[in-house]
Amino acid sequence: MHLPAFMQSRRARLAAVAVAVAVPAVVVPVVFSTRESGLPGTSADSAYAFPATPDHIPDTPVRVNQVGYLPDGPKRATVVSDSARPLAWQLKDNAGKVVAAGESEPRGLDASSGQSTHVVDFSAYRGSGHTYTLEVDGRSSLPFDLDPKAYRQLSVDALSFFYPQRSGVAIDGAIAPGYARKAGHTADTPNGGDSKVPCVPGTGCNYTLDVTGGWYDAGDQGKYVVNGGISVAQLMSLYERSPKASQARALRLPEHGGKTPDVLAEARWELDFLTKMQVPAGEPLAGMAHHKVHDAGWTALPTDPAADTQQRQLHAPSTAATLNLAAAAAQGARVFEPYDKAYAAKLLTAARTAYAAALAHPTMYAPDSDSTGGGAYGDTDVGDEFYWAAAELFITTGEKQYGTAVTSSPLHRADVFAAPFDWRATAALGRLDLATVDNRLGDRERVRQSVVDGADRYLKTMAGQSYGQPYAPSGGYDWGSNSQILNNLAVVATAFDLTGKAKYRDGVLSGMDYILGRNGLNQSYVTGYGEKASKNQHSRWYAHQLDPKLPNPPRGTLAGGPNSQLQDEVAGNALRGCKPQLCYMDDIMSWSTNELTINWNASLAWVSSFVADQT
Fold first, then answer.
1. What is its EC number (predicted)?
2. Exposed/middle/buried for 234, CB within 10 Å: 0-12, 13-18, 19+?
3. Cis bond upstream, residue 302 (ω within 30)
4. What's the half-sphere exposure (Cβ side, CA atoms, 13 Å) at 361?
5. Is 55 a known active-site residue?
6. Catalytic pick from 145, 586, 587, 613?
7. What is the pLDDT of residues 272-299, one digit of tens each?
8. Which H or E element spans position 498?
9. Residue 245 neighbours by CB under 8 Å, 6+ apart
10. Whole-structure pTM value
11. Which of these is catalytic: 290, 538, 587, 613?
12. Which of 100, 185, 397, 456 allows an S-S link to 194, with CB 3.0 to 4.6 Å?
């Protein structure tokens, strides 16, 4: 994605590091495991306490999914080798016994990594167990499991990531051991918090709003409606995809055990915040949503949320934010209706009001220049947000006005899967829900076929990649490439739900291999998952690399991943000239390759929940 000023705003973080370091709350240090396998259950203690991970893992040319493969699923590895001839391989169990053998397929030069490669396919082996290794031409892979439950814990951890991201509430160490902290940005914090936030001077509003709650967006402590919208939507969508599985998935959050499924309880924390960002009745822009709230200036690394001294400010309303609110609230209205009818009605009113306000103010764009103290999240094309919001309102209400808005949009017949969807390109969210959630759309079969066609294209892309990722941009890897890969996999997964064809299920499983280690760097991009896993993501409070008293990010946190633009100084100096797949470093200061964000973890949560259900 193209984010020029937003990327520039991230540079300010580097300068902010030189500012005096804030005093953190009491936090128990946490170290992370080498692999996921063998975890005892989903209890809070077992989810956080692990043996120390070595700082340096010996590299190997044999690249595998370091977590594991499903016994009945595809099992492929990539080998870096200049050999033009096939290489002999052996699959060994944890006793060193050879259980399968064969020869590799030479694939030649992989353009995205610049590496000469072979592919090993050991899918025919259907055994199960722990700590397998793949040996190719005398070199061994890192260990992995063959386990039908390989992804169950990941689906829990990826979703439990959101609880420690909560703003406005103390994080309970009994629920998230090692991550206890005081409530951030409440009225009694040094900056007065988010309970009475004024607008940025010059924006024309003379009121304050209580915008407490919600999730901190990323490595900073801002809260952005356009990023919160896609994040909460994907959490609700994974619930809608499989309500029964979602109800059985026990997350680490205070509301666990209530009548509302855990994933929806977490989603409600963000939905409540989004509705608070709506301009009050009686004001000139009533019904619109403020684009974001964050500090007046960039804070240092590390900064505990409860110690933040910067003034918080509401930024001007935008059409994009307003439509994000409309879409997310409309979806929330239908998923919460079985559990809390009054809350569902409140959300639907907010959605209707926001959509009407956006129609009245269709060109209020957030500028790329608004990047002091927080990301700009600029967007001057909101046709996709109009399409998404109309789709969600139509699915929820069935009303003609929203259906007409969907079918009259130029995007309704456009190929919305030509590029990965993200916070700035949201039409695919509407298309996926129109295809999968019951509704009376007249051309719904064509809509469903468009999802299948998009998935077929992603499978074709995967087949042409030595590392099997559904991603081959012509201009290099983008910021947040890992999330873009996962969102492409969500399209493939939806095609499986629509058709039941195994090739789509297998495509999703193969695509996850890239995220978990089968890539040019032999790097798992999920904290706590794999021998060589990311653990120093850019964050102001998960900052163990800067302060040993602080923790690394929680288990199940996705790193942004390779980014060819290398906007930060650390990556720019260390990786200049890198091939796209190699433009990554696990360093807290590499915010352009190694940040964490709520929308990236939402994509991980969606896909990991899908694969966890494939047992």
1. 3.2.1.4
2. buried
3. yes
4. 23
5. no
6. 586
7. 999 999 999 999 999 999 999 999 999 9
8. helix 481-499
9. 609, 612, 613
10. 0.93
11. 538
12. 185
